[in-house]
Design brief:
Helix content is about 35%, strand content about 20%. It is of the alpha/beta class and about 210 residues long. It has one domain: Rossmann fold (3-Layer(aba) Sandwich), CATH 3.40.50.720.
Length: about 210
Amino acid sequence: MTSIGILGAGRVGSNLAGKLAAAGHHVILGRRSPGERTAVPTGDVDPRISFSDQRAAARTADIVINATPGDSALERLTGLRAELAGKILVDVSNATRDAGGLPGDLCYPGSSLAEQLQATLPDTRVVKTLNTMLFMVMTAPDILATPPTVYVSGDDAHAKRTVTGLLGDLGWQPAWIEDLGDVTTARATEAMILVVPHILRRHGFEPFAVSLAR
C-alpha cells in the first residue's frame, strides 16, 4: 500500500492517520517537534502509524497531506520544497485569519492557499480537497443524514485520480466526489470557509459539510 506522510498531528491529521492506516496504508505522522502531542492517545495508535518530524515525513512518504494551520502553511511548506519535489501534496487546510478562535477573513482573497502552494512548489502536484467540512466528516461521511460532497481541485489529472482513490479509502462514494477542475477552482471551495463560523456559532461542532444538493 501507499506510504502517506501527514504534516500536522492535531485533530485533522490524527483523524486522517487513523482511517488511512485502517485502510492498510503506512502513515507517517509528522509533528513540528518531537515533544508535540498528538490527538491520538498513545495506547490507541495503529501499528501502521509511525511518528517523525515534518521534514522526515515529507521526505520519506509517497504522498503528503498538509493538515497544518492554513495561515502559516505556505511558509512552512516552502521550506520543504526539496522534500516535496515530484510528489503529490494533498492540501486539506483553509487559510484564514483568526477571529476569536474561529475562521475569519481569507488570507489570500482572489486566490487560494492551494494556488499559492502550487506556484511556490512547481515540482509538486497539489490537490485541494476535504476542506469544506468538519474534521470528523472527512473520515466518516456517512454520519451525515444527507449525502455530502467532497470537492477536488488540481492541475494534474493523475494526481487527482490518486487522491480520489484515497477518498474512497476514507469512505467517500464516487457519487459524492466532485472534480471541479484545475487548481484555480480551489479559491471557490476555500471561500466556503466564510460560512463556517456562522454555522459553528449557531450549532456548535455538530458534523456538517458544505455540499451540493441535486
